[in-house]
Please model this.
Amino acid sequence: MTVYTRRAGSLGLLVAGTLLLVACGTSPTSRAPVEERRTAVSRPAMDPNTVAVKQPPGFENAGKVGYYTVKPGETLIRIGLETGQNWKDIAAWNNLAQPNQIEVGQVLRVTPPTTTVPAAESNGVVTRPISSSSIASSQVQPGQASSAAAKPGVAAAAAEPAAATESGLSWIWPVPGPVLAGFDELKNKGLDLGGAAGEPVLAAAEGRVVYVGAGLRGYGNLIILKHNNTYLTAYAHNKTLLVKEDQAVRKGQKIAEMGNSDADRVKLHFEVRRQGKPVDPLKYLPPR
Model:
C-alpha cells in the first residue's frame, strides 16, 4: 500500500507539472474583437471588358433634320457655308460660349429653334401649296392666246435661267473677267474668274454680309453674303476686303478688290450655294 501510494502521488505531481507547462506555452485562443472601420462602397455590376466612352455634346440629335455632325477639320465658318447659315447664328442656337471650341462628332443645331421643317421635302426641294389664284392665272381658256406669248418682251424673259427665276433674286456677274474654270461638284464648287489685281469685286445680288476674313482654308480673304433663307454667295482670294460682318449690301456694290490670297494667280473664286449645297453659278448669272 505504501509503495502504491507513493507511485500515485508521484504520478499526480507529474501530471500537474505537465499541465502547467502546457498552460504556460499555449497562447490564449480567445482574442479581442477587431472593429472594421472601412466603409463598404457599393459599385454597380459591370462587365470588366466594358470601357466607358464619353459621348460628344448633342450626340442624341445625330441624324435628325436640322442638325449637323462636326467632321474633322471643320470650323463654324465652314459649317455655316455648308448649311447656308450665319456662323454667329449657329453659335447662338447652340449656346457656344467659345465658338472656336467644337469637337469632332459634336452635333449642332443648324436651323432656328422655332423653325419647323415641312414633311414634303425631297432632295432639298420643299413643296409648298399653290394658291388658287396662281393656278387660275396660269390657265389659258380654249380659243384664247396666251398674253405672255403675245408680248415680244416676254420671250427674252423666258430665256432667263429657270434657277435664277426660282431664286427670286436679280443677279449680276461679280467681275467681268473670263471664266478660268467652270463648276464641278467634286473638284470646283464654283467659278474661277480672271481679272487684274485690285479690280472691283461686286455683290452679285443684294444681301447681308455674314462673314469677312481668312479663316477658311483654301479661300484666302473671303466674303460670304446671305441673300435670303435659301441662298449664299462666296467671294474668295481677294486682295482687299471692303465690307464688315452684318452689313447690308446692294446688288452691284463694290465689296472687295481682286487678288491672289491662297491662290496661284489673281482670280475670283465665286460660289452660289442653295441651302448650303454648291450649285452652278451659270444657272443664275445672266448670259453674257
The longest strand covers residues 231-241.
